[in-house]
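RECORD TYPE: inverse folding
INPUT: structure tokens
STRUCTURE:
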């Protein structure tokens, strides 16, 4: 089966590459993936497959059934792009101003299309059934995965396990990476509005300065990580946006801040949210101002199931060779596949797409992010092999 899948992957590569390039040229933002979804659905129908259900308006599922009893394995890919202006010098660059597939979701969707094509061609040679999940809105809270779960996707299919892959420019093409257990952090979004009383910058004693209050809040919040959080608990609290529309001699009346909280423990995650609220309000009050706190609960932490991941590593070594399968480190980034991983035995792994010799080394979310497209053949070939091996074991 290994050699047959590799042969199919080689045969289908050009078609899957064309699909990926079409998606890359025509990006759509989270929960707006109507044309993306229609394009993929029409392609699948021409291949003789049926769309089983629509989820969250732009998401959909396809079931490929061997007709023989066995496990149900689900495989997920995301559809959405990012609000980034593409600067990559490639012939298939985004045609849409301000939108770009800078996180590789075009790769994920194209690879799942390749999986569908190979599984359809080989369904007499395996048992059980496979559910292909094309998911919208990975990049925007509350996340498409959580909404699909709310709409009943897991109740409908009851998968025994679920797999997903994600591009990883840090690895050279041909390599993949896995991590058992905790892998990616939870992510909450923090929105603060600090209110004071603006006025002339030369007369600070007549004002309540929200700039100074905001600076005090940012600095003091870091003690939550260094002095309240257990040292053994990985935690990140960062602010990436501050808006205080004053001037060199104008103290504004209001400052807005936006940040993120990342951790791996749900109990401490709740404690942090409460502590952030208390500290922000008390610091502002001490200065004579106010702070309004809005913390939006985001994705949970992502955990890879031990058996599913260890088996996936073994299968990947069989398909690619042991030297091309690497161990991943814990990451503070977040991923809404975590919603699936909290409910179903899961394996979320990384697909190498970099090529340092060709200068393909930009990180995801970079305006010049690109991939070595030969990674597509590795991506959908390996994923198909993993699915069939999980069904057989």
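DESIGNED SEQUENCE:
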């Amino acid at each position: 089966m290994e050699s047959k899948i590799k042969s199919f992957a080689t045969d289908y590569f050009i078609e899957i590459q064309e699909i990926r390039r079409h998606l890359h040229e025509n990006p759509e933002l989270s929960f707006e993936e109507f044309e993306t979804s229609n394009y993929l659905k029409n392609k699948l129908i021409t291949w003789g497959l049926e769309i089983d259900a629509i989820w969250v308006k732009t998401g959909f599922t396809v079931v490929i059934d061997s007709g023989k009893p066995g496990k149900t394995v689900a495989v997920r890919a995301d559809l959405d792009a990012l609000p980034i202006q593409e600067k990559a010098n490639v012939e298939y660059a985004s045609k849409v101003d301000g939108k770009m597939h800078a996180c590789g979701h075009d790769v994920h969707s194209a690879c799942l299309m390749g999986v569908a094509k190979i599984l359809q061609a080989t369904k007499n040679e395996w048992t059980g059934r496979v559910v292909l999940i094309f998911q919208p809105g990975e990049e925007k809270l509350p996340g498409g995965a959580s909404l699909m779960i709310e709409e009943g996707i897991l109740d409908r299919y009851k998968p025994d396990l679920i797999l997903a892959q994600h591009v990883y420019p840090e690895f050279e093409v041909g390599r993949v990476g896995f991590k058992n257990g905790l892998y990616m952090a939870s992510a909450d979004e923090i929105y603060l509005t600090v209110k004071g009383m603006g006025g002339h910058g030369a007369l600070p004693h007549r004002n309540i300065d929200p700039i100074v209050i905001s600076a005090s809040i940012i600095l003091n919040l870091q003690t939550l990580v260094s002095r309240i959080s257990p040292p053994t608990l990985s935690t990140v609290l960062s602010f990436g946006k501050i808006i205080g529309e004053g001037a060199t001699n104008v103290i504004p009346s209001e400052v807005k801040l936006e940040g993120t909280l990342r951790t791996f423990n749900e109990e401490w995650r709740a404690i942090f949210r409460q502590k952030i609220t208390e500290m922000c309000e008390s610091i502002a009050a001490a200065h004579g101002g106010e702070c309004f706190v809005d913390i939006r609960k985001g994705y949970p932490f992502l955990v890879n199931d031990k058996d599913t991941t260890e088996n996936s590593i073994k299968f990947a070594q069989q398909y690619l060779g042991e030297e091309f399968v690497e161990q991943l480190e814990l990451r503070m980034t977040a991923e809404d596949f975590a919603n699936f991983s909290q409910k179903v035995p899961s394996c979320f792994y990384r697909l190498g797409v970099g090529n340092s010799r060709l200068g393909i080394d930009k990180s995801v979310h970079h305006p010049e992010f690109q991939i070595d497209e030969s990674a597509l053949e590795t991506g959908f070939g390996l994923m198909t092999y993993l699915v069939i091996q999980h069904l057989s074991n």
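NOTES: DSSP finds ten helices and 16 strands in the chain.
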